[in-house]
Structures are given as C-alpha cells and as structure tokens.
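Sequence, please.
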C-alpha cells in the first residue's frame, strides 16, 4: 500500500523497521507538495503520482562510482529516499511545502545488551519458524537458499522441527570447484529430511541467458552493485521460481554482532593515520597506493566488504556531474570517532546500509522481477529485538574474533555441522569470470551508455579491461561499470 502525506497532515514521524524486513521508501515530489511512502518499492514506483522517467541523483551515482554503495537515506534517484534499521524521518511543512529531516540511532549497541541474558536456541528456532509461517503463502512451492553457512542451516533446522520436510526444497549453487558447497549442503538437507537441488550454471552462454539478464535490468526498481546479483536471473533459467516462496538466510549480522577478522581490527587503527594524504589520492589515477591506504574507519569497513571504486579524478572524467564523496565519509567518521569498532562495524554503515544495499538487495530484486514471495526470517523484528538484547559474551568472542557462538554449537550438536572445521566459504559465483565470457556485451553496454562522457569512457574502460586481467580491484570496477550501465540502458523507470 502507498500512503500519501500533504502539508496539512504534518507533522508526522516515519520510522524504519528495527529488523530491516520492510525498509520504507519515500518519494517527495519536486514541488514538495506531497510525500508518498510505502514498504514496497515496486508499488511506490507504479504510483501515477510519481513523475516518469525518474531522474538520476548525481550524488547517488557519485557514491556508486567512488565506493559502490549508497548509504541510507539516499538512493540512486532524485527525490526518492529509503529508511531502514535505526532510521527516522520527521516530516514537517513550512509555507505549504514539505520538509524532511532524517535521523539515525543505532539500536544494537553492545553496551546496551543485557549481560545476564543467555540465548535460548529452542526459543530462537520457534521464532524463526513463526517468522516463516507468518509470511508463507501455503499453496505455493517453497525453496530455501541453503549454503554451508550458519544462518541458512539454522533456518533449515527450524523448518525441520516445524515439520515442513515434505514442503521445502533446499537449493544450493554448484560450482564444481573448491568453493562448491552443494555436496555437503545436500547431505545436511537429507539428514533433515528435505529434498535438495543443485543449481548448476550452464557452461555455454546462450541467447536466452542474455535475454533474461536484459529482462532483469529492465524490471529491477533499484540497482545492486554486487556482482553476485547476476547469478539470480541465471537461476531463473534452471528452475521456474515464478510464483513461489523463497526463504533466504540474510540479515542477522547487525544484531548478532559483526566480528572483524584480526587483520581488519589492526588496520582500522592504522589506516586513518594516512588520511591527510586523501586529497592527493583523489587526484591520482584509480588504484594508487594512497587510495588504498588513506581511508576513514567507516570506509575501511566498506573496503573489507570488497567495496571500492574510482578516484574522484577518474569518476569526474567519465561522469562530469560527479561530486566528491570523501567529505561525507569524513563527517560520518567524526560522528563516530569514539565508537567501539565492533559497534561501528555493525551499525548503519555496514549492517543497515551496505549489507542491505548489496547482500539483501540482490535477492529482493530477484524476488521483485520474478514475482516471488521472499521470506527473510532473520530480518523479523521479534528475532532482531530478542537477539539484540542477548549478552555479548553469549554471542561472540572479541579475543578470538569468533562470531555467532550459539549457532555454531547448535549446528554442531544437532547436525554435526562444524563451522570451525569447514571454515568460511565465500559465494562461488565469479561475476568477473562470467562477464569475460560475454565481453562483447559488456563493452557495448558500457561504451554506449549515455551516462558517461563518450570520449573518456572509452579510454578508461580500456585501462580497466587491461588491468583487470591480473588485478582484483579492476575486476570489481569492470563489473561495476557493467552493472550501472546495463541498468541505465534498459531500466523501464528511466524511459
């Protein structure tokens, strides 16, 4: 449902969902006469009160080019905002025009946890199954995206104990290499009594794959700069996911505690010492050593997620309307200068913004395009509020940099799934490798894209192509340019 606010309805306060299950999207018309808002971006953009085509935000695109993520409440569109975990917007009016004032208060500080509260895993499993049943459309097939991770397998355990063995099919990407999670995942699914299906991507790129990718970019409401997003339209060629329920295990890091790796924890104390070199770094070519070193603590969190981008110099060349985003990051760091790094890593920089704009955005887009009923149990507000109060010592270990301790024990005891032995599996889909197989399409989408300065994009793209063969940073930039360009070239909301 889309709600409308006029100046006569003010003042009004709109708050984001504490678990992140239902971000709220807002549209302020250019004359500031009315505000529309909804927890369904697709319904919001379908409103006849929104003027089409939508306009690109130069600030939003600058964030994408230079960092790879846009932090709430901003989006890639002019006049469209999003509020999520910890966000609030005060809607007021002055002389008949609506004004928006945004605030954020992180709701899961570790210092505010109850030191006496232990996690009851049986209660947690009951909350998970309830969160699923509350969102489930019973007559539709049910799929669970299952990896070897703690989150999806805890959901699988909860569904098994709720008696859904004959209704749920677990699906896992099969890469047939060292990152392949599907063999062990299938055994876990069988142990719980679930059917399991491997998602094996086609070895040959055929026209139908290119068509479904174009279809995806045409219909998504918001772009996602995570290259893994490309695997989801490919999934649609393997299984008919249309009109199904899909359960995904994303969304709990923000309240379970985002534990850094030891090397990251050390670097967050070192990198800011080079920040005085940042103005110089921004005027040098992308990939310079100063760009990699002169980072605020908040930016370093993004870097450890693989989020990076072009220097301001290069972004400005291909996109003349680009603005420098470093001052924004500097201000964000200043506001959080006394924060404990474990809180900083979980807060709105990574947990509520980067994680939701990347990790969850890609599956939301998949669900939106293919009419899927998406269920994200871990984003349920009751689960978030419960785990968010559990004592820190119960959830993670600062000295050993170990996270989600109760889930580790639970899966080891009941499924003989030992996360410590398995280690951390990264998602097996390699976006750059996939795109190199269709480099003709990548080049066409990027070079012909009207967003870019035609002279400079050809030169910069050639440099990116050449350096990407051996450099992971430029592989990410190659992927980024394609994702932005293909979205802009095809998207129906921009036509």
């Amino acid at each position: 449902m889309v709600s409308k606010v006029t100046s006569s309805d003010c003042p009004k306060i709109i708050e984001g969902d504490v678990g992140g299950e239902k971000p709220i999207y807002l549209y302020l018309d250019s004359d500031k006469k009315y505000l529309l808002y909804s927890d369904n971006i697709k319904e919001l953009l379908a409103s006849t009160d929104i003027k089409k085509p939508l306009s690109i935000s130069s600030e939003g695109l600058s964030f994408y080019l230079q960092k790879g993520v846009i932090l709430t409440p901003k989006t890639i569109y002019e006049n469209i905002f999003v509020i999520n975990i910890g966000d609030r917007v005060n809607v007021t009016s002055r002389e008949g025009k609506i004004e928006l004032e945004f605030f954020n208060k992180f709701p899961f500080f570790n210092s505010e946890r109850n030191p006496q509260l232990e996690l009851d895993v049986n209660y947690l499993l009951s909350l998970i199954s309830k969160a699923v049943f509350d969102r489930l459309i019973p007559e539709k097939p049910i799929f669970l995206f299952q990896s070897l991770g703690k989150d999806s397998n805890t959901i699988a355990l909860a569904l098994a104990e709720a008696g859904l063995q004959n209704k749920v099919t677990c699906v896992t990407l099969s890469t047939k290499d060292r990152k392949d999670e599907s063999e062990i995942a299938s055994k876990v699914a069988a142990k719980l009594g679930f059917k399991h299906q491997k998602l094996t991507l086609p070895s040959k790129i055929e026209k139908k794959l290119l068509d479904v990718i174009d279809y995806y970019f045409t219909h998504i409401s918001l772009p996602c700069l995570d290259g893994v997003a490309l695997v989801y339209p490919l999934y649609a060629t393997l299984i008919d996911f249309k009109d199904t329920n899909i359960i995904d295990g994303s969304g709990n890091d923000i309240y379970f505690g985002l534990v850094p790796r030891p090397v990251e924890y050390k670097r967050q104390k070192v990198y800011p010492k080079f920040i005085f070199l940042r103005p110089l770094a921004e005027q040098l070519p992308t990939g310079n050593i100063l760009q990699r070193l002169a980072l605020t603590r908040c930016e370093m969190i993004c870097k450890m997620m693989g989020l990076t981008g072009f220097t301001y110099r290069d972004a400005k060349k291909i996109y003349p309307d680009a603005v420098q985003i470093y001052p924004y990051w500097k201000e964000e760091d200043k506001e959080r200068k006394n924060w404990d790094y474990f809180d900083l890593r979980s807060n709105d920089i990574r947990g509520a913004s980067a994680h939701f704009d990347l990790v969850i955005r890609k599956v939301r887009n998949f669900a939106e395009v293919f009419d899927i009923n998406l269920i994200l149990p871990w984003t349920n507000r009751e689960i978030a509020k419960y785990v968010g109060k559990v004592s820190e010592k119960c959830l993670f270990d600062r000295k050993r940099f170990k996270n989600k301790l109760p889930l580790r024990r639970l899966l080891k005891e009941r499924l003989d799934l030992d996360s410590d032995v398995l280690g951390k599996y990264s998602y097996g889909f390699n976006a750059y490798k996939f795109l190199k197989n269709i480099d003709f399409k990548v080049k066409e989408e990027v070079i012909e894209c009207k967003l870019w300065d035609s002279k400079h994009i050809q030169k910069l793209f050639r440099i990116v192509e050449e350096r990407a063969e051996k450099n992971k940073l430029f592989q990410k930039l190659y992927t980024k340019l394609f994702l932005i360009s293909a979205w802009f070239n095809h998207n129906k909301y921009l036509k």
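The radius of gyration is 22 Å.
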